[in-house]
Amino acid sequence: MSLPRMRTADKALAILKEEDPDTGVTLHYIRCLIKSGRVPSTPVGRKKLVNVDTLITYIAAGGDQESAEYAQETGQIRKVPI
Questions:
Q1: What is the pLDDT of residue 62?
Q2: Which of 3, 15, 41, 63 is the most buried (most CB within 10 A)?
Q3: Residue 42: enclosing H or E segment and its boundaries?
């Protein structure tokens, strides 16, 4: 059984840059993915840890389908109960 590589956003970026020094992925982008829930994270105290392999898979897939689903969820006006 292998353990998932759970890292903070900046450590995940360091791993990405280690594998691809010319990557266009930024720390801000990773934090936005975590905050929006598009990439699952685990809260540990004040930090949020992300599975680096899941993050790489999401970025490699382009995130189109999940981005569209997220936009549909947040782009709708909901009725406020009175």
A1: 82
A2: 41
A3: strand 41-44
